[in-house]
Amino acid sequence: MSTSSRFAVAVHVLSLMAWADDEPLKSEQVADSVNTNAVVIRRMLCELAESKLVVSQSGAMGGSRLARQPEQITLLDIYQAVENRGVFSLHRHPPNRDCPVGVNIGPVLNQVLDEVDTAVEKVLANITIKDVVSRLKPCVSTAAPKRKQLRKEHVLTARNQPQG
Amino acid sequence: MSTSSRFAVAVHVLSLMAWADDEPLKSEQVADSVNTNAVVIRRMLCELAESKLVVSQSGAMGGSRLARQPEQITLLDIYQAVENRGVFSLHRHPPNRDCPVGVNIGPVLNQVLDEVDTAVEKVLANITIKDVVSRLKPCVSTAAPKRKQLRKEHVLTARNQPQG
DNA sequence: ACCAACTGTAACTATATTGGTTACAGACGA
DNA sequence: TCGTCTGTAACCAATATAGTTACAGTTGGT
User: Fold this and answer.
1) Could you tell me the pTM of the whole model?
2) Do the bridges between strand B63-66 and strand B54-57 make them parallel or antiparallel, or are there none, so unpaired?
3) Which one of A66, B59, B66, B124 has the lowest number of neighbouring Cβ atoms within 10 Å?
4) Which strand C bases fall within 7 angstroms of a protein CB?
5) Residue range A95-149, pLDDT digits in tens
6) Three-class DSSP labels, A131-149
7) 119-138 of A, contacting B, C-beta below 8 A
């Protein structure tokens, strides 16, 4: 099914911003946490900005931050912003219309795919970025309790590391 | 998300076989209804046979038919037979483990993806091939009531058409 | 025993999507 | 006006699916 990690990366990105509170994050910082190229992040940030999930600012001291409070951004919002297609696709080429099955399988499959999409959306609509971040925090405090000195402005502790 | 039509095609294929009752269908016949190449169908039939959803027979008068009754084959069975990955994927490259978000986003995302997969599976488990075929039949009788003379052995009315 | 009709499968090409990279125009704060 | 950002185009790489040709092996009919 999904060959793409777009949803996972988008959730990651917005979680970083929620974690950083209102501190604008630069695409380089985000890319460093996601472990990808900054342009890939900027492309995604554009999509997220079009969906009014983030706001970005150009120029020196620029960056991106959440457009709303983390509890007002659901995973469904993110899903719809970055994954345009449904969970499944229909045939690449339309089936044979001279076959009684071929001519009618499309609508029937669409009913099924709608049911599936609805179920997925129902799950995603009930999880917010705030939920994600709060699930994140216990891991940090148990896995790395010594890292308490982390300040929000420096949340990306590895942002100055060489690209290696 | 899904870039593939494998699930749609597989449901189509098994619907044809349910429609054809116990008459074995040749890969050429199936391909003609799906509107693709017979080898593509044979490849998929192999996967479906491995999952014990169809049985195939080589040689003259060979072909494939359902391995069980249509009401005993759910769309979940088909989904698991032909779509190996879940609905979403995680990051292509693992995130930065020096970032408190990056190091913990994976497990949190996996929880979410599991919830999504479970929801999808729940929907698919409740629909059988028999359901699909019975949703198909009304369309046929209303859309083409004159086609009543169709016999099951000749369900693929266009199977002798030129490939055009 | 042979032939014709099938499946199973390898090998290759075509196509599409995503991700990665470089490059650069424009915005903006200091 | 300069350095630091975003936004975006253009291109390449990697991956997955689909389509095609070819052929070995199986099987039923004769």
Assistant:
1) 0.83
2) antiparallel
3) B59
4) 4-11, 16-23, 26-30
5) 999 999 999 999 999 999 999 999 999 999 999 999 999 998 776 554 433 322 2
6) HHHHHHHHHHHHHCHHHHH
7) 119-120, 122-124, 127, 132, 135-136
